[in-house]
Amino acid sequence: MVGLAGCTSAGTDDGTVDESGGEGTLQSLDVGGSPGGPVPVLPEGSVALLDWWATWCAPCKPQMAGLREVRDRFPDVHMLSITNEADEPAIRAFWTEYRGTWAVAQDTDLRTNERFGVTRMPTLLVFDPEGTETWRHVGLAAVETVAKQLREAGAERV
């Protein structure tokens, strides 16, 4: 297996962080399998997989097929892909071309990047139902590795 390094994120954070412990919501786009409207970053009581990505990030493209497979295996896991890009047409085109089947949201003020210490693309984080981060990976991740980490966080495969 060939490993790819993650891409460096650009920009600085001038956003605010919810210091109360809540992770808040982001606005998801209505494209592909993404529902549109507000989506929680970390819903209470759910295993969650957060994915930071960008349209310009080379390893993010093949990662999409793997994440679709993860989605099929673990439909009850909260999956959210987060981009810092403002170009909504480019995001929509990427999500359509690479067949995203879960929520995708923009965070142009980098609020979630700051909150979770994300500085490179792609970055995947897994959280258990209590909201504790149980796994972090930068770069292209194998489907079986992601699946193993989700199971260890408490997710059940269908």
Blueprint (SSEs and pairs):
Blueprint: E1 7-8, E2 25-31, E3 34-40, E4 48-52, H1 60-73, E5 78-83, H2 88-97, E6 103-106, H3 111-116, E7 120-121, E8 123-127, E9 133-138, H4 143-152
Parallel strand pairs: 4-5, 5-6
Antiparallel strand pairs: 1-7, 2-3, 4-8, 8-9
Descriptive report:
The structure is a single chain. Helix 1 links the parallel strand 4 and strand 5. The chain is built from four helices and nine strands; from the N terminus they run E-E-E-E-H-E-H-E-H-E-E-E-H. The relative contact order is 0.25. The protein is α/β, with parallel strands linked by helices and 158 residues long. The protein has one domain: Glutaredoxin (3-Layer(aba) Sandwich).
Short key terms for the protein model shown above:
Glutaredoxin, 9 strands, alpha/beta, 28% strand, 5-stranded mixed beta sheet, 158 residues
